[in-house]
Amino acid sequence: MIRSLLTLAICLAAFTLHAEDPSDGKLRIIVFGAHPDDAEYKTAGVAVKWARLGHHVKLVSVTNGDIGHWKEAGGPLAQRRSAEAAACAKKLGVTSQVLDIHDGELLPSLENRKLITRVIREWKADIVIAHRPWDYHPDHRYVGVLIQDAAFMVTVPFIIPDVPFLKKNPVFLYSSDGFQKPYPFTPDIAVSVDDSFEQKLDGLHELTSQVYEGGASGSAEYVANVPPATDEVARRAWLKRRWGARQSNEAEKYRDLLVKLYGEEKGKAVKYAETFEVCEYGRRPSPAEIKQLFPFYPAQ
After folding, report:
1. Structural domain total, the chain
2. Closest CA to 121 of 158, 170, 61
3. What's the pLDDT tens digit per position in 55-75?
């Protein structure tokens, strides 16, 4: 009886807190990546665009990345990668968070479902972005599963009652990937990042352990083929070539969607793009709402 009354009191407090939450009218976006580089790689360009308009963006690493290097591991690597993610976020003008779960050990457990639900609620998210649950890396897959599981739970009052539940379900989105089974990535949203690409590179430049040392797939040979840190100009040019190719390939692959969203002339002129697929488990936005959530498209 005492426990039931305590639970009820906590829930009522949560309802009150929800009603009193301040709002500045800006969008609140949270992006989940499996490791301290994934959210940055997939969404830094659009994150910059949101941040420039005063919207609130948080990039979350669900694991601490403590085995994500060919030469380093453990607590020192986790601290290094957390610092890199924070430095990247500062360059992008967004917020960073690294959860304390070991790299390579993420599971879609009840505990982690509650953790992800809590983080989304605490951010009061309007948009949630994450990996699809079909990926080469188990951590990536399970981030996708956990996000899907949270897509309903964020609105349920009596789970995690100490954190105010969301009265409006966020729009849940998948970031792009190249995997084909069980079905290929099929974007509903394509955003030109031509005007934010250089700032994205500024952020990625801070992810030294991954970008310039190759992370878990790196080697001494990999590092030897990257311009040294003492040659800043050459290093940045190397980074731009790699990411320019990646983002331009994405623009070319989804050119028809860019034309649909930007119009013929502007859509065909987009050089770099980031793309997203709507997850059917969250709120299903209309085309008009997509343009409100991604306020970058010209009036048509």
Report:
1. 1
2. 170
3. 999 999 999 999 999 999 999
In a domain, 300, yes or no: no
Query: CB of 68 within 8 A of CB of 101?
Result: no
Q: Which of 157, 154, 77, 156 is nearest to 122 (CA)?
A: 154
**Alpha-carbon torsion, ordered 175, 177, 180, 182, to 10 deg:** -30
Q: Report the alpha-carbon distance of residue 44 to residue 88 in Å, rounded.
A: 9
Decide: 251 and 257 in contact? Cβ < 8 Å.
Answer: no
- 29 in a domain, yes or no? yes
Q: Are 108 and 145 in contact (CB under 8 A)?
A: yes
On the CB side of 190, CA atoms within 13 Å amount to 27
What letter represents residue 173's amino acid?
L
**Which range of residues forms the domain containing residue 25?**
2-293
pLDDT (0 to 100) of residue 299: 81
Question: Angle formed by the axes of helices 197-204 and 74-92, to 10°?
Answer: 160
- Rounded to whole angstroms, how far apart are CA atoms 62 and 68? 13
